[in-house]
Design brief:
Blueprint lengths: L12 E4 L6 E9 L6 E8 L9 E8 L3 H14 L3 H6 L5 E7 L2 E9 L5 E8 L2 E8 L7 E5 L14
Parallel strand pairs: 5-9
Antiparallel strand pairs: 1-9, 2-3, 3-4, 4-8, 5-6, 6-7, 7-8
Length: about 160
């Protein structure tokens, strides 16, 4: 339980490690008091969204949280702009290894063949993680658990 009396057991917030040179921002968060579902979305990149600049979004959600599926759909919507591309079908996912808490973890990876955009999805213990990015290879990333978001722009103290 946290100081708000909310159970976050088994949920972790993942972020790009401290070596990330650009802006680190909290994009959003949520907690459903009925289901106990929790999620946090973090942005790593320029202070203003620029799809041509190196950036990564890290979305962490409690296991089974519908928000994880919605985050994946939003990422596909951003990186596959044409409705025709989505109707034709998404490319098959390929495995990618991303270092997570110092350990290699396998994620599913989708790449956009037109540009350097990609989407990755994996599960770390009881946390579903959806990554999306551009201009950086996902295998070059190193994810770490964070509990203190004060180093991020727009930090918040509780998940409520």
């Amino acid at each position: 339980m946290n100081d708000q009396g909310l159970s976050t057991e088994g949920f972790s917030i993942f972020a790009i490690d401290a070596n990330w040179p650009e802006s680190r921002q909290v994009m959003g968060h949520g907690y459903d008091e009925v289901t106990g579902d929790i999620h946090v979305s973090l942005w790593f990149g320029s202070p203003y969204f620029d799809p041509q600049a190196e950036h990564v979004t890290v979305f962490s959600a409690s296991s089974g949280n519908a928000e994880a599926g919605e985050a994946l759909e939003r990422a596909f919507g951003m990186y596959y702009h044409s409705a025709e591309e989505l109707l034709v079908g998404l490319p098959a996912a390929e495995p990618v290894t991303i270092t997570t808490d110092g350990n290699p973890m396998t994620f599913e990876l989708w790449r956009n063949s037109v540009n350097r955009c990609w989407i990755a999805r994996g599960c770390v213990e009881s946390t579903e993680v959806v990554l999306s990015g551009s201009e950086i290879e996902p295998s070059e990333l190193s994810l770490v658990r964070v509990s203190d978001l004060t180093s991020f722009s727009n930090p918040f103290e509780s998940l409520r």
